[in-house]
């Protein structure tokens, strides 16, 4: 509350969180608003359950990141009425028929195989197993759908917010989480009945619970590069979801001998 009696708000649309006083009360607190956290909020909302969702990011994903959504996952989104909205932004099925190996995007094609359930001799198996198909929908397009749906159904969303730690006085008692607003630097508390860690491998919740994350050595190195280019005129007969580019006549470092060109939107 400002001195003149008006209420100020943060850039993320919330009133400034308190630094003192009683904790904010909510039945459910979800830490992480990626596909896991935001989908969880949507599923809980489908049962009339709401709470607060936090994310350290300033908004939804700005890079494509994960993109293949399998039929089982799409069935779950279908159950809560989101299938058609997801299909509306997904890559058309006609561009997911093949995985290719080639010298370059416009050059010699070495080989291709059917992929993502498009093998002619297996189509019946996939059709019998699920009413849904694999779809390609990157996180930049999926996350806004999920977060918006959760908010419309009653969830509170706080971006630019860091989960610090949690405390619990009794095994069956409420969980008190310490939260920091990244914009104002203010720290406050949220008390919830349930706390969900959906914030990935760097999760403070996982670290505090001392849950081991096993990483095998020698998994290799991957470098992601986001390129914007119009490939429409080259791709009429080169449709595919993943394009393995291999140029054996050129010497490459051991970690960079192959490039996978992945379409984000066809063919842009």
Automatic annotation (TrEMBL):
Record InterPro entries: FAD-bd, FAD/NAD-bd_sf, RIFMO-like
Residue span, FAD-binding domain: 25-249
Region annotation Disordered: where it falls in the sequence: 1-27
Compositional bias annotation for Pro residues: 14-25
A GO MF term: FAD binding
Keywords: FAD, Flavoprotein, Oxidoreductase
Listed Polar residues bias regions: 1-10
Entries under Pfam families matching the protein: FAD_binding_3
PANTHER family: FAD-BINDING DOMAIN-CONTAINING PROTEIN-RELATED, TRK SYSTEM POTASSIUM UPTAKE PROTEIN
Annotated protein name in UniProt: FAD-binding domain-containing protein
Species this protein is from: Friedmanniomyces simplex
